[in-house]
Amino acid sequence: MREYLINADFDLSLRPGRAPETSDGRGRQASEMPHHLLLLGVDGDSVLVDEPPAGEFLAYLERTGLPCPQTTVLPRVNLDAEFVPFGWNDEAVDFNRSYISPASHPPPEVVRKVNGRQFAAMIERELFDVDEVLGVFESVDEIEACVDSRPAEEEWLIKSEHGNAGLGNRRLRSRTLGESDREVMRRLLSEDVCVLLEWWRRRVVDISTVFMVNNGTVADLHIYEVVNTADGAYIGSFFGGFGKNLEVWRSSLVDVASKVARRLSDEGYFGPVCLDHFVWSDGTEHRLRPLADLNARLQVSAPMLRLWRSWGGDRVFYWRLFAARKLCLPSDYLELERALGKDAFTARERRGVVITSPFQVAGRKCRRFGVLISGASRAEVEAMDRWLRGRFEK
User: Fold this and answer.
1) What are phi and psi of 257, to 5 degrees?
2) For 21, which DSSP code?
3) Where do the H-state alpha helices sit in 269-377?
4) Helix 179-191 with 140-148: angle, nearest 10 deg
5) pLDDT for 22
6) What is the pLDDT of residues 266-312, one digit of tens each?
7) Burial call 96-108: b when 16+ CB within 10 Å, e when fewer
């Protein structure tokens, strides 16, 4: 069996000057994240949690026909399991020693390097002759001087050296920076070694490629569409319904994955990889950004890909995260099923809307929850998504 540690603060933990988690609510976000990935704990596997999911939520999943996840409540562990963390940071390396047969893993210094955005920018230039980075900066003054020298019609994106699913990105629309812009930059620079300034592009579609790499070879590769905010923060993922916007780029993306895998192996990395790409418009034609981000770890949507594959890939999935303050759903699961009506999920049809993470953990409301929408076509899934938001969005 595999036992998963969802160390959801993995990206932030790579920042050398990481701020206290209580300063902006990220600690609470990280504590909730294992419950968004509960469905990794199926088919004999388990997910490590601080608090077990509520019985009402598990009963709801059972009624829908989805597999019920198995959890292991810390500090207990299954000593003979194969340990699998979300990402190999120092915490995961230490935790790995708890098991009878600790899992092999890449050195932490290698993990830190290959997850850095300077490394991704370097190999994007090296492998694909693409340079989207205007500069790497260690002070706000340097950033302002660079932006002030640029053409007025440009827009830019600030990224920290070690990301956080795009949540720390900052879009700059003007050469005149506001105090809120400076505040974000100061916070990022206080935590990390530098920030990168990239051109902001008018994206047509966001894409992720996930795979396992070992000795330079690619295994279990899958390419799928991602839905992000304009600044690149994650909203959700589509599995199936591979549209023409992606199909035309498939062979290029397979080539990108192969080249990146070999480069990662040269650095000494092996394990899960998630590459982010996007197609953007320059006003006359569409172009591929081959390596917008490189994440040497699992992806948040890993349980949904596993479920989609287990069903033979004959459905279209849209799995997304909603902020609890934006989508007002009934907190009672039986009432929720009634409110969803004909669009409530049933495993027999493998169609409908199902909540994939609990509304509460340890008696406290979660800030976000996962929603899976499954149907026979992309059009059907998008129609259910529009209905759901129209019915329940605040």
Assistant:
1) -60, -40
2) G
3) 302-310, 333-340
4) 130
5) 44
6) 999 999 999 999 999 988 999 999 999 999 999 999 999 999 999 99
7) beebeeebebbee
